[in-house]
Specification:
The complex is a heterodimer of chains A (231) and B (94).
Chain A lengths: L2 E8 L17 E6 L2 E7 L9 H15 L5 E2 L5 E2 L2 H10 L1 H11 L2 E9 L15 H36 L4 E4 L8 E9 L3 H15 L4 E7 L11
Antiparallel strand pairs in A: 1-3, 1-4, 1-5, 2-3, 6-8, 6-9, 7-8
Chain B lengths: L1 H4 L17 H14 L12 H30 L16
Helix pairs in contact in B: 2-3
Classes of the chains: A alpha+beta (231), B mainly alpha (94).
Chain lengths: 231, 94
Amino acid sequence: MPTYLYCIIPAGHEAPAASRRGVDGAPVRELCASGLAAWVSDVPDTTMSPSVSRARAHDDVVRDAMARATPVPARFGQVLAGDTPVAALLDERRESLLESLERVYGCVEMTVRVLLAGQGAASGPAPRESGSAYLRWVRERQQVRQAVSDQAEFLRRGVARAVEEAGVVREIVWATVAPGARSLEAAHLVPRALIARHREVVRAAVERDYRMKVMLSGPWAPYTFCSAGHE
Amino acid sequence: MAALSLRARRRVTDDELELTGDDRLVLGDLLNHVLDKGIVISGDVTIAVADIDLIRVGLGIYITAIQSELDHAAARERDKPDADVPVLHHPRGA
C-alpha cells in the first residue's frame, strides 16, 4: 500500500498517539530507519490532490511532531510506493536530512509581512489625453516603484538589525519583492523559547520605529528552511 | 553524531506552539507553507501548480485590501492630494 510522508524527526522520540489521524483520516505511524523517524500514513493511491482540509491535516500532524522534536516537514503530496522506498530514501538521504535537522533544531518559523506604502499612485490606468500626460504618468510610476523598492530595502535592513541585535532569530529568508508588490515578506527561524520576544521586537521595529503595518503568523514548522536543496 | 545531539526529550507545551495571526492570513500562510515549501525527498510531488498560484492570488488580494484601507485612512488623515506618494519614516533616534 502507498505511504504518505508528513515529516522526519530524529529517532528515539515518542511515536504518534494511536488516535492521531492524518490526511483523509488515516492513522499516523512512525517508520524508523537509519536513526531517523518518518511520520507516515497509508493511503489508497499514489496521487494526492490538494485541498484545504488535507493541507490542514498534513500541518496538524507536523505540529504534533513539533511537540516532540523539531521536525523537517515534508512538502504536501509525497506518496511513495510503500514503507520500503521510504526507508531506502531515509538511508540514502541520511546525511542531508541530519544537516536539515541540525539547521532547524530547537526552532520554529515565523512569517513576517510588512505592508508597503505608496503603490496606489502607480496603479491607475495610463492617461490618453496627451503624450505629455502619458510621459508624466510613466515618470511618476517609475518614481513610486523606486520609492517602494527603496522603502523595502530600508525596512529589510532595519528589521534584520533589530532582530539580530535582540538575538531572537537564527536565520532569515526574504521573499523576493517583485515590482508592484504590496508587502515585504520574510521567514524567520526563531528559537522556541524566544517566540513571544520575537513578536515584540518585530512589532516595535516596524510599528513603533517605522510606523508601518506588520502582520505576523506562526509559529510554523520550519518549512521554508527545509526547502533549499531538495531534489 | 548529529542524531545524538538532536535527541532532546523535552516536550514543549501546547501554549508555546499555539498558532497565532489573523485567521485569513493564517490559512493563506498554512497553504503556502504546506503546498509550496518543506523538504522533497521523493521527487514525486503530485500537486497542481495552478492551485498554489490561486492561493497566492487569494492572499495577495487580502493583503491588497488591507493596504488599500490603510492608504485611504492615511489619506483622510493627511487630507493631501499626494497622499499616495510613499513616505518612509526614519526610525526614532536614528
